[in-house]
Amino acid sequence: MRRSALALAVLTLAGCSFIPTYERPAAPVAAAWSGVTPVAAATPAAEVAWADFVSDARLRELIGLAIKNNRDLRVATLNIEQVRAQYQIRRADQFPTLNLAATGSRESNADDSITSLYTAGLAMSGWEIDFFGRIASLKEVALAQYLASEEARHAAQTSLVASVASTWLSLQASDELLALTQRTLATRRDSLRLTKLRFDNGATSALDLRQAESLTAAAESALAQQQRQRALDLNALTLLVGQPLPAALADPAKDAVTTQPLFRDLPAGLPSDLLTRRADIRQAEQTLIAANANIGAARAAFFPRISLTASVGSASSELSGLFKGGSWGFSLAPQALLPIFDAGRNRAGLESARVGREMAVAQYEKAIQTAFREVADALAGRATLGEQLRAQQAQATAEAERFRLAELRYRNGVASFLDVLDAQRSLFSTQQALTQTRLAQQQNQVALYKALGGGY
């Protein structure tokens, strides 16, 4: 009965764990999106693969190249392998390590004789018997860190998809603005040529000529700016893709299909969906779980640490007799260390672990708040950018007609050249704003996909 009680006590201690019970913190956000009816999505955004979200074939090809070649994503993938190896190391710490060992020693005695001892066999050195769960707690820390690294890789891929799509849209808008500026510059040069001809023949004033020259110079400046911006967008896209862009994919405006939507429309879903479907929030929660498990390891450090060193094999006082019959032997050396005085090291370690958990809670809550703000911003954009785009399209149509009428009136001597220049300047600004708003609307769709934790 004594032996049974002792075995039961050992088993009880071996199953001991000082890890606090984990409870997910309450989300510090509202239960519904502002201005959006809370309806569960039939297909959540996190389950929509990026290839299904993106409709344009060339953009899908670019994203595929980026996933294959982007260095940041490659580092995130390699980090998973590194953290997985750390977890395997922690798991291996729970088991004894066996080694083949051979030793030899010779020492002199007080009577000037020499004692020799040779051994060969299996040896186990310093195996910690995890009675109080210290190693198990560290294994749980490593496991949570490994899971967090996987979520970090998923978040990195979603961010990469969004960045490639957004930069590709910027490059497309730069091409549109470049073409618009080139057309405007050609129109202004024609106007300047006509004005100079009229000035040479005394039909217009020097003021009209200088105004025409100013507008032409402004268009030339805008053209240089748009050329520079397109080069910057192309460089940014090349960096994201991780290789020089194929010639067929370097021009987003080429053979573009404008009648088909570029992206699939996504439902907002319920706010609670983000907690389980957005990768960066899941990453922050795994980091919190790791910090919580670290408290268990810090608590276990206050209790005895029991280790075992043992060997079994052949032993002999002569090297030639090491493997002869009757030379078998073994050694067993258990050790128990109970911390009595450590100048407050263990207590400081426990306090550090507790503070680390509080920091992880704050980071988890911040990740939730950031995610909710990003979704709310994207939903606000979706609700208003469509109306803004329609209004600016109507304004651009009106300004184009105004410019046509002003030019017609000027050529018939009814209006001044100042009216033509003002209409031309206003039309150019409106067309630029229209392109920028269209870009903002498309990029907002990408931002909503990322904010909702789009699939990978």
TrEMBL record:
Gene3D superfamilies: Outer membrane efflux proteins (OEP) (2.20.200.10). GO terms for cellular component: plasma membrane. Pfam families: OEP. One of its GO terms (molecular function) is efflux transmembrane transporter activity. InterPro entries: MdtP/NodT-like, OMP_efflux. It is a lipid-anchor. It is found in: Cell membrane. PROSITE patterns: PROKAR_LIPOPROTEIN. Residues 1-19 form the signal peptide. Keywords: Lipoprotein, Membrane, Palmitate, Signal, Transmembrane, Transmembrane beta strand. SUPFAM superfamilies: Outer membrane efflux proteins (OEP). Belongs to the outer membrane factor (OMF) (TC 1.B.17) family. This is Efflux transporter outer membrane subunit. It comes from Hydrogenophaga aromaticivorans. The lineage of its organism: Bacteria, Pseudomonadati, Pseudomonadota, Betaproteobacteria, Burkholderiales.
